[in-house]
Specification:
Elements: H1 2-19, E1 26-28, E2 35-37, H2 38-54, E3 59-62, E4 66-68, E5 73-81, H3 83-87, E6 94-101, E7 104-112, E8 117-122, E9 127-129, E10 132-133, E11 146-149, H4 163-169, E12 175-177, H5 182-190, E13 196-199, H6 204-216, E14 220-222, E15 236-239, H7 241-251
Parallel strand pairs: 3-5, 11-12, 11-13
Antiparallel strand pairs: 1-2, 3-4, 5-6, 6-7, 7-8, 8-9, 9-10, 13-15, 14-15
Bound molecules: D-MYO-inositol-1-phosphate and calcium ion (2 copies).
Length: 254
Amino acid sequence: MLAFAKNTVIEAGEVLKKYFNTPLAIKTKSTERDLVTQADIESEKYIISAIQRHYPDHAILAEEHGRIGDSEYLWLIDPIDGTTNFAHSHPMFCIVIALAHNDKIILTAIYDPLRNELFSVEKGKGAFLNDQVIKVSSSSTLSSSVLVTGFPYDRATNPKNNMKEFCKIMPLVQGIRRSGSAALDMCYVACGRLDGYWEYHLNPWDFAGGVLLVREAGGVVSNIDGSEWAMASNNVIAANKELHQEMFRALNDL
Ligand code: IPD
Ligand code: CA
Ligand code: CA
């Protein structure tokens, strides 16, 4: 199943490369800044039909289609994580396929088609970037770290929009990035390119696969309030063990 997920994200990457940096049909979803393009739709259709051919009894939760079927196996699909970037020809986006069994993620493939970078993980078998083992960074303090975060689409009206937290953390760290792709944020923490990540108001297809990747890369993942992360969670702190503790304290005013 991991081989299938890896092949399928690479194939969906071909769909995205065909559309990237071309004039696109773009619609809005929950707010005027929550976009969906024809590339999201075509990538998702491609992945859904591949899953239905190979695993017709499995259920699917796809960002643009919603839930399909009922099974102890659930495929999560984000056909473009980083749609705003994609729609602006900004080269930072990926495709996510993750598989959960009884609400626990067991494998994930995340593919950045422009850099040809394939992140993959299977529970208990380590985390990989293009088949090389990856590990989280060892930066243990906020002052020696570069973090990454994001802001929800409804940030104009949602009081929990991460602005307060961003302003609090910014003076404490070497830098904070906002890549626009939650899945790549998790991948970059898993391979040590970034030291820690936090974000509120995510959906499972954005980051559930990345949770397994960071854990198998030796990192620690929890909800922002420190409680145990679960499939139903919509927020996260991910980092190495020491930095996770620092981030947890800072984000919770401890
Ligand atoms: C979004 C990205 C972004 C995060 C948003 C997500 P999308 O996913 O992952 O980094 O801040 O919360 O919704 O809409 O590009 O698939
Ligand atoms: Ca997403
Ligand atoms: Ca998406």
